[in-house]
Each structure stands twice: as structure tokens, then as C-alpha cells.
Specification:
The complex is a heterodimer of chains A (about 190) and B (about 280). With about 190 residues, chain A is mainly α. Chain A has helices at about 10-15, 50-55, 60-85, 90-105, 115-130, 135-150, 160-170, and strands spanning about 20, 35-40. Chain A folds into two domains: about 10-40, no CATH class; about 50-175. A two-stranded antiparallel sheet of chain A has the order 1-2. The radius of gyration of chain A is 23 Å and the shape is globular. Chain A starts with 10 loop residues before the first helix and ends in an 18-residue tail after the last helix. Chain B has one domain (about 5-275). Chain B has helices spanning about 10-15, 20-30, 40-45, 50-65, 65-75, 80-100, 105-110, 115-140, 180-185, 190-200, 205-220, 230-235, 235-240, 255-265, and strands at about 5, 35-40, 145-150, 160, 165-170, 245-250, 265-270. Chain B is elongated. Classes of the chains: A mainly alpha (about 190), B alpha/beta (about 280).
């Protein structure tokens, strides 16, 4: 076995920029090993807005701009619905209904990414599957949170999208077209 | 009985269906202290129900047209499953109508071909099927308390999307090195194989005839290998054979399972749909 080169480390200097975090869960790497994460300056803690990262005049794809605008409107509708949900169920449902055409329009922007497409599609279908019955306050809150997450990570991966779909299912939203229940599922 | 040995039909209802059938399957699983899922059921699930979903998904990818998907469904509606397929076609039309109703009319001029309603509906279906396959696969080992009868020769690989956008389910077959692990266990109990063979109904159905022949071959010609086709033909007999004594086979297909299970002194239970939530 060849000897591993040893690089001398000035610990005092290093700890000024890095903090030591014990590995969790323990790994089978050598005992006493630690992971090193960069100590973040205070400015890094501030949330960077999408608009700062991608100014509108620099984003070439109009669908990305449209998706951001429509998501902002949809989030507003679901947040308003959430506020009304305890006091006025009709007003809350009215806000949810107003978001349905927005979701349909967002689906036209699905080329943004597969994670984006999967979430928007599941939400549109969930609302259609309600057949007019209002969704619960908990479900409204979950949708608002998910759309905020999507707005801040527009190019969300498909796998991350699946994680949200799982949450939708868990909350009782019926995210698949009902027609899929009528397919012949008899196994051979 | 406190243990259930779960078959492919219950796995399918719990993972791929929603509404009363899914509720019934999941609720039935909670009736037992221990629920056992043999890997053979996962194998059947992938090669059966998921294959149908894959076909429809790939049809959407290829045609990019909802009308073309409906035409394809019409084409297969001439087979023995025509009633179910006709219901599916009606459901598809309803699905499209409900979504079109909440879609603004002017999207085509704003967003181009991506907003074409025929393409939109086929893409919605594609995304839904893909999500359903992926989530069902993720949850397959979570719906029961235990996974039993692992198949060393079966690679339980997740479905994936290839570079052309098609869902691939391969491998769906075992790749045994030497004798199949199931075959070894089956051949070690020829008495049970004889009882199962005698219990296969003389129905005239091809499925029963094949099953009877494979069971007979297993005890009469034990040196003959159990091929993939033969293993597939065994189907329900595998559940009757491997269900542990003291457990019941939980299935929606009691008619086929019952004679086989009873031949080995075992019993069958079915999930019952609550009348309140049955359409």
C-alpha cells in the first residue's frame, strides 16, 4: 500500500475560517475523522432573491419569466385562501378556484423542468379531483409552501418534485387522474 | 389470524389505485399484526400492472397527442378486456374535459405548441403515469411490515426513463446462476406440489392448464429447470406454497387462490370495500 502524503495544517489559522462538525451519522471512515464545513460570513445567511440572481432583462427564456410571474400570483391566491380558511370557507375556496387557470397556464411553461412540470400537473389534477369540494386549510398551506419552494427553486429536480408529490398524497390530495383507476391492472 | 401473506393484487391496489380500492387494501393491511410481502409479488407487480402503465406512458411520449392515445386504447379495446378498456376511454375523455374547463382559451397564442390542448393532455397523462410508477416503486417495500422470500436471482431495479423519454422496466426476469432459488424450495416438497396440482381447477382456462402442467413437471421431472415462463405460470400457486402456516393469503382474487390455499390447509382473506365509499 502506498503511503498517503501528509499535508501540514495550521489548525489555528484553519479554524478561523472553518468549524469542525463531528460526522453524523458515524461513518466507517477512520475514527476521529471530522467533516469540514466553511464558516459562513454573515452576509451569506441572507436569502438571495430569484430576481437578484436572474434579473428579468437577462433571462432569455420568456417561459421562465412567465413562470415566475404566474407562481407569484398563485402563491398570493393560496396565501389569501389560507388566511380566510378559518373564517370564510367560501372566500377561501374562491381564492383556490382563482388559482386553477393560473396552474393551467403554468403548465404551458412546463419546459422549465421536469420537477416543475410534475408539481404543477399534480396540483392541477388534485384540484380537478375535488369535484367542487373545498380543500382543507392544511392542504392549502401545503400547496402555498410548495409553490414558494418551487418559485425559489424553479429548476427543481424531478426527484425533489417527487418528494413534494409524496407530501401531497400524504395530505389526502388525489394527485393522479381518476381515469388511471379504470385501467386494466389485472396481472397476468 | 394475525399474519397476512400479501399477494400481487393487494400490492397493486395499495400502490397504484386511489379511492375505495386503495383504501380497502391499505385498511386490510392494518387488520394484521404482521404483514408479509414476498419478493415474488414485487416481481409480478413490475412485470404486470406496471407494464401496462409503461405502455400508456410511452404511447404519450411517442405520439405527443391525446387523440392518438385514445385511438391506441380503442385499438386494444377489441380484446377480452374490452369492457375495462371502454371504461378507461370514457374516463380519459372526462379527464380531458375537466382540465380543459379550467384552462384559459388563449394560451396557444401566448405559449405556442406547448399549450396545444391535444399535446397538453397527453403530457399531463405522461407526467401522471410517470409519477405514479415512481412513487409506487418507492413505496413497494413500505406497505407491509416485512419483506420475505427474497429472490437472490432477481435484480429489483427501479424503473427508469431512457434518453428517448421512454420508461424502461427491465429487468423483469430472474437471472439465476444454476438452479432457481424458488425451484429448490418447491422441489424439496413434492407432496405439497402434488396437492397443489390436484387442486388446480379443471376450468379450461389456459392459465390453469399451464399452472397444472408446471406443478406436475416440478415433482415428476425435478431435474428440469424452472424457466422464467414456467415460474410466471405458477403464479397463485407460489403464494399458496410459501404462505407460512398460521398466516392467511391476503388477495382480491379469492376465487383463484382459495382452492390452492385450502389444498395445503391454508386460508384466504380479502380486503373489503366499505359500502360507504364504494362508488
Amino acid at each position: 500500500m502506498s503511503a498517503t502524503p501528509v499535508i501540514p495544517i495550521d489548525r489555528d489559522r484553519l479554524q478561523d475560517s472553518y468549524r469542525v462538525v463531528p460526522p453524523e451519522p458515524p461513518t466507517n471512515i477512520e475514527s476521529g475523522a471530522s467533516t469540514w464545513t466553511r464558516k459562513q460570513p454573515e452576509s451569506v445567511g441572507r436569502k438571495i432573491l430569484w430576481e437578484e440572481l436572474y434579473p428579468v432583462d437577462e433571462v432569455a427564456d420568456p417561459k421562465v419569466i412567465a413562470a415566475q410571474r404566474l407562481l407569484a400570483e398563485a402563491i398570493k391566491a393560496f396565501e389569501s385562501a389560507f388566511k380566510e380558511a378559518d373564517e370564510d370557507v367560501v372566500a377561501a375556496d374562491d381564492y383556490v378556484q382563482s388559482a386553477q387557470p393560473l396552474l393551467a397556464e403554468l403548465f404551458a411553461c412546463r419546459s422549465v423542468g421536469e420537477g416543475f412540470a410534475a408539481i404543477i400537473n399534480a396540483l392541477s389534477i388534485s384540484l380537478v379531483n375535488q369535484h367542487g369540494e373545498p380543500i382543507s386549510k392544511k392542504q392549502i398551506g401545503l400547496i402555498a409552501r410548495s409553490l414558494r419552494e418551487l418559485k425559489s427553486q424553479l429548476f427543481l429536480s424531478y426527484d425533489s418534485g417527487l418528494r413534494l408529490l409524496r407530501e401531497f398524497k400524504k395530505s389526502g390530495l388525489r394527485i393522479y387522474p381518476e381515469v388511471l383507476q379504470n385501467l386494466d391492472l389485472q396481472h397476468e | 389470524m394475525s399474519n397476512a401473506f400479501v399477494d400481487t393484487t393487494v400490492l397493486t391496489d395499495a400502490l397504484l389505485k386511489s379511492g375505495p380500492k386503495a383504501d380497502a387494501a391499505r385498511s386490510a393491511l392494518t387488520r394484521y399484526e404482521t404483514t408479509l410481502l414476498p419478493v415474488y409479488a414485487i416481481k409480478e407487480f413490475k412485470a404486470g400492472p406496471l407494464r401496462y402503465f409503461r405502455w400508456l406512458h410511452n404511447k404519450c411520449v411517442l405520439s405527443k397527442s391525446f387523440a392518438a392515445v385514445l385511438t391506441a386504447l380503442h385499438a386494444i379495446a377489441r380484446g377480452p378486456q374490452r369492457y375495462l378498456t371502454a371504461t378507461a376511454i370514457e374516463g380519459m375523455q372526462l379527464f380531458a374535459a375537466q382540465l380543459i374547463a379550467v384552462t384559459p382559451a388563449n394560451l396557444g397564442s401566448k405559449y405556442g405548441p406547448d399549450a396545444n390542448l391535444d399535446y397538453v393532455m397527453s403530457d399531463r397523462l405522461r407526467l401522471s403515469i410517470r409519477a405514479q410508477i415512481d412513487l409506487a416503486w418507492e413505496e413497494r417495500r413500505e406497505i407491509t411490515s416485512e419483506i420475505v422470500d427474497e429472490l437472490e436471482c432477481y435484480i429489483e431495479a427501479a424503473p427508469y426513463v431512457n434518453k428517448r423519454g421512454f420508461i424502461e422496466l427491465t429487468p423483469t426476469k430472474c437471472e439465476p446462476v444454476g438452479e432457481c432459488v424458488l425451484a429448490q424450495k418447491l422441489k424439496a416438497n413434492p407432496d405439497a406440489l402434488k396437492k397443489l396440482h390436484a387442486a388446480v381447477p379443471n376450468s379450461g382456462r389456459a392459465e390453469d392448464q399451464k399452472r397444472a402442467q408446471v406443478l406436475k413437471d416440478l415433482y415428476r421431472i425435478p431435474k428440469q429447470p424452472l424457466t422464467h415462463e414456467k415460474c410466471k405460470a405458477l403464479g397463485d400457486a407460489v403464494f399458496a406454497f410459501f404462505c407460512p402456516v398460521g398466516s392467511v393469503i391476503l388477495t382480491t382474487n379469492a376465487r383463484d387462490h382459495k382452492p390452492l390455499a385450502e389444498a395445503l390447509g391454508k386460508s384466504v382473506d380479502t380486503p373489503s370495500e366499505s359500502p360507504a365509499c364504494t362508488k
